[in-house]
């Protein structure tokens, strides 16, 4: 039976990373009241600059740092448009996605030529945690996983604690629910929203970097392949919480892993590849449980109008 | 607190034009005025949301210039807004401490709950700090607002139209809270346009009219009539003058009606009701007992599960709202801004909303603007809508004038029956007087009027018969002339008591 094979769970975990990270990022943004559908674009930017700087500097870690900086800057642009000039957040996010797809493809071709990024690009290490890999079954799941898998697990826990058990987390949630109320209590709504959106950029870029220098060591055009949108579904599926987003990402990751494992078993691979996307539609259509978005999600806040 | 000759001029409007007020320590001071008299502008200036054009606000002996609510809060001013500034998704404790939370990085939830519990004990505002605000009644949410003010060490509490959303019981509780604050020496500024409440709770009253403070009087020596005259600036008829009803044939009969609301909750659970021509039937009840679903069902906006609605001899149970309108049912819905008007349309478009398909407003499917505008202008004159400008958007009108537009549209179609749900909600004395007169006039013309209201006073002063609804059922129907406040109030809680005048 394929479900008893730990390999499918290892693949599930690995596939969940580039979904869970942007989903948690989106959670931070939307919890402060800014709709972020630009995860796809920010992931692409993260993925590309991770490879580029990893190659140029010879260090995958510096590549990761560059991915974070570029992702953060892109998110800052989104934040400025959404917060300062009260632009339509869905249009802005879509704009960033299209811009990122074009920019990364253009830079890929101009900087690296049509052969793609060099195969000598360093990637982030895969590690096994000593002790953990001795446990039967569980050990196999965690054997030789990218270091970003472990970082993600830590981030899931820290994010949840941060959002629900810290003063700043409380303020973020209040700003996303009722910014005017928060403002009258002396909370700087705009600053909190910038923080939330930029944080989402960092998480998304990390997810992108996982694809390009965590799993592989190269960038191909549009390599995120819609994962930013699936992450969006995972965020909603997870009811705008980091733990929920992670859980949803695992489900989506599993469906992808299942698709891979079942290949060559007589089921059409096209049909199998469809599973995560079909799940996404179900989640976004609100069929999977009732999820309530933060009350002020997507509504610009203008303190002068209060 | 002392306010000296405060003025706030907007381009073209003198919202406040000479406000003078002295608030003494430990007194409950009411500010009474009609909607548009400048009460909100005054509050916004005190709370740092607007800057005065001229004049001065002195607080604790010093002149203050708040540039934001933050500064006002910091100085010790606690404001309870009409629309609460609460976050429904968070708990009571979280709402109270927000912005000044205990803990360093971690939010110390236990400490927050402890502090809120201490405050609630000190000011006798019983509340569960760990409850989610969304789960609380409006009355309890208001307590959270008051606690928020005290958590920030408020030395003065401003209550802006605090009873607008409360049930009579909750209002009673609020008043006992206010008395408690007074006993603690906390001064309270109580803003309202409701005479009876002001008379009951305040020590002194300052009346505002057209942006000016007219007079400050001791509440002891004031009567509803003197205050109402000060407010409106002329003699006001408080009690509705009406002759005896001459009820005729039944116009509406409701048999065993069951209605579910949009959330599939059964709200009306077997109502039997009869309305005759030439009478006003008041439907009294506490909010949420099915009265508005019943009104919606009669107007055709909700489909009944079961039962029958007979109107003027026709079974209209399955008719569409448009067919009912055609047949002679007029409806003034509860929420005038949501269901009564299209706010972004102008008055012409709003007055022909029901009849735009027909002559003279439309010919061959094209709207005749001239005919529609003439008609609207006539209604504006007849119903004294202000400003008298048919090209204004409905959203630009005050609540009272919006209601006049709806009433004008419904009544001028010469219906056989009018359903009026909360027709005077949020309106001031002058406007209420006018609407009430219209309802009585309709009755005297031989039409049936079904008045659904949460205001007991309104029901008592207008109705020829009073039906009391509780939990989706009619508890009793009593003649309006003999009914007392206590009797109806008791019936509204569902207890039949021993009403001797029972008719059903």
Automatic annotation (TrEMBL), chain A:
Gene Ontology, cellular component aspect: plasma membrane
Location within or outside the cell: Cell membrane
Topology of this chain in the membrane: Multi-pass membrane protein
GO molecular function terms noted in the UniProt entry: transmembrane transporter activity
Membrane spanning stretches: 6-25, 37-56, 62-83, 95-114, 147-164, 194-220, 240-262, 274-293
Organism superkingdom: Bacteria
Organism of origin: Alicyclobacillus sacchari
Keyword annotations of the record: Cell membrane, Membrane, Transmembrane, Transmembrane helix
UniProt keyword Nucleus present: no
Pfam families per UniProt: BPD_transp_2
Protein name (Swiss-Prot/TrEMBL): Nucleoside ABC transporter membrane protein
PANTHER family in the record: GUANOSINE ABC TRANSPORTER PERMEASE PROTEIN NUPQ, SUGAR ABC TRANSPORTER INTEGRAL MEMBRANE PROTEIN-RELATED
Record-linked InterPro entries: ABC_transp_permease (IPR001851)
TrEMBL record, chain B:
A Gene Ontology cellular-component term: plasma membrane
Record bears the keyword ATP-binding: yes
GO molecular function annotations of the record: ATP binding; ATP hydrolysis activity
Keyword terms: ATP-binding, Cell membrane, Membrane, Nucleotide-binding, Repeat, Translocase, Transport
Predominant location: membrane
CDD domains recorded: ABC_Carb_Monos_I, ABC_Carb_Monos_II
Membrane topology: Peripheral membrane protein
Matching PROSITE patterns: ABC_TRANSPORTER_1, ABC_TRANSPORTER_2
Pfam family membership, one: ABC_tran
Domain ABC transporter per the UniProt entry, residue ranges: 1-235, 252-496
Cellular compartment(s): Cell membrane
Protein name in UniProt: Nucleoside ABC transporter ATP-binding protein
Organism of provenance: Alicyclobacillus sacchari
């Amino acid at each position: 039976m394929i479900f008893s094979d730990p390999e499918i769970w290892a693949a599930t975990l690995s596939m969940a990373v580039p979904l869970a990270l942007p989903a948690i990022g989106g959670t931070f943004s939307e919890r402060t009241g800014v709709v972020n559908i630009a995860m796809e674009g920010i992931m692409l930017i993260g993925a590309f600059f991770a490879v580029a700087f990893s190659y140029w500097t010879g260090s995958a870690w510096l590549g990761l740092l560059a991915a974070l900086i570029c992702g953060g800057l892109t998110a800052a642009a989104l934040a400025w448009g959404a917060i300062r000039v009260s632009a339509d957040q869905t249009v802005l996010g879509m704009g960033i996605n299209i811009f990122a797809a074009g920019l990364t493809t253009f830079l890929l071709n101009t900087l690296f030529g049509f052969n793609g990024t060099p195969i000598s690009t360093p990637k982030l290490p895969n590690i096994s945690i000593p002790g953990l890999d001795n446990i039967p079954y569980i050990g196999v799941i965690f054997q030789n996983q990218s270091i970003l898998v472990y970082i993600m697990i830590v981030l899931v826990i820290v994010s949840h604690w941060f959002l629900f058990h810290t003063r700043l987390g409380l303020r973020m949630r209040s700003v996303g629910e009722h910014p005017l109320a928060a403002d009258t209590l002396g909370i700087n709504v705009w600053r909190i929203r910038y923080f939330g959106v930029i944080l989402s950029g960092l998480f998304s870029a990390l997810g992108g970097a996982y694809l390009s220098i965590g799993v592989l060591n190269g960038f191909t055009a549009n390599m995120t392949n819609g994962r930013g949108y699936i992450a969006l579904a995972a965020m909603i599926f997870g009811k705008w919480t980091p733990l929920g987003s992670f859980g949803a990402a695992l489900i989506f990751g599993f469906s992808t892993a299942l698709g891979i494992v079942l290949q060559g078993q007589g089921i059409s691979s096209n049909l199998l590849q469809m599973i995560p996307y079909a799940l996404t539609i179900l989640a976004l259509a609100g069929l999977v449980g009732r999820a309530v978005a933060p009350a002020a999600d997507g509504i610009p806040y203008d303190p002068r109008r209060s | 607190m002392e306010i000296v000759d405060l003025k706030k001029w907007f381009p073209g409007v003198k919202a406040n034009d000479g406000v003078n007020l002295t608030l003494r320590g430990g007194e409950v001071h009411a500010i009474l005025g009609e909607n548009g008299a400048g009460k909100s502008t005054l509050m916004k200036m005190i709370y740092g949301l607007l800057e005065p054009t001229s004049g001065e606000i002195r607080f604790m002996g010093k002149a203050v210039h708040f540039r934001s609510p933050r500064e006002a809060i910091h100085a010790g001013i606690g404001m309870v807004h009409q629309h609460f500034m609460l976050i429904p998704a968070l708990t009571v404790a979280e709402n109270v401490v927000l912005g000044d939370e205990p803990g360093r990085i971690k939010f110390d939830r236990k400490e927050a709950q402890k502090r809120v519990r201490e405050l609630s004990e000190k000011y006798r505002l019983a509340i569960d700090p760990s409850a989610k605000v969304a789960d609380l009644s409006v009355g309890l949410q208001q307590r959270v607002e008051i606690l928020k003010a005290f958590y920030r060490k408020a030395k003065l509490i401003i209550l802006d139209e605090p009873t607008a959303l409360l049930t009579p019981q909750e209002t009673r509780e609020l008043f006992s809270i206010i008395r408690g604050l007074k006993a603690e020496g906390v001064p309270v500024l109580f803003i309202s346009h409701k005479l009876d409440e002001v008379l009951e709770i305040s020590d002194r009253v300052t009346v505002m009219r057209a942006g000016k403070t007219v007079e400050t009087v001791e509440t002891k020596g004031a009567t509803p009539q003197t205050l109402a005259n000060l407010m409106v600036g002329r003699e006001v008829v408080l009690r509705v003058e009406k002759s005896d009803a001459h009820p005729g044939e039944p116009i509406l009969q409701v048999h065993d009606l069951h209605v579910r609301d949009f959330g599939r909750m059964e709200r009306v659970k077997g109502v039997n009701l009869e309305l005759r021509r030439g009478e006003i039937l008041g439907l009294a009840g506490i909010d949420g007992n099915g009265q508005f679903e019943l009104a919606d069902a009669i107007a055709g906006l909700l489909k009944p599960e079961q039962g029958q609605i007979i109107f003027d001899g026709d079974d209209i149970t399955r008719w569409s709202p448009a067919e009912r309108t055609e047949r002679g049912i007029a409806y003034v819905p509860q929420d005038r801004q949501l269901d009564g008007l299209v706010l972004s349309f102008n008055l012409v478009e709003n007055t022909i909303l029901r009849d735009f398909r027909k002559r003279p407003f439309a010919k061959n499917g094209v709207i005749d603007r001239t005919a529609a505008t003439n008609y609207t202008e006539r209604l504006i004159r007849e119903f004294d809508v202000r400003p008298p400008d048919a090209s204004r958007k409905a959203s630009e009108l005050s609540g009272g004038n919006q209601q006049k537009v709806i009433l004008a549209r419904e009544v001028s179609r010469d219906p056989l029956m009018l359903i009026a749900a909360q027709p005077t909600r949020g309106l001031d004395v002058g406007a209420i007087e006018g609407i009430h007169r219209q309802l009585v006039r309709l009755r005297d013309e031989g039409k049936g009027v079904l008045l659904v209201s949460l205001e007991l006073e309104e029901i008592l002063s207008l109705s020829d018969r009073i039906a009391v609804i509780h939990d989706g059922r009619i508890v009793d129907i009593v003649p309006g002339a003999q009914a007392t406040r206590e009797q109806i109030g008791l019936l509204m809680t569902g207890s039949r008591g021993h009403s001797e005048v029972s008719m059903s």
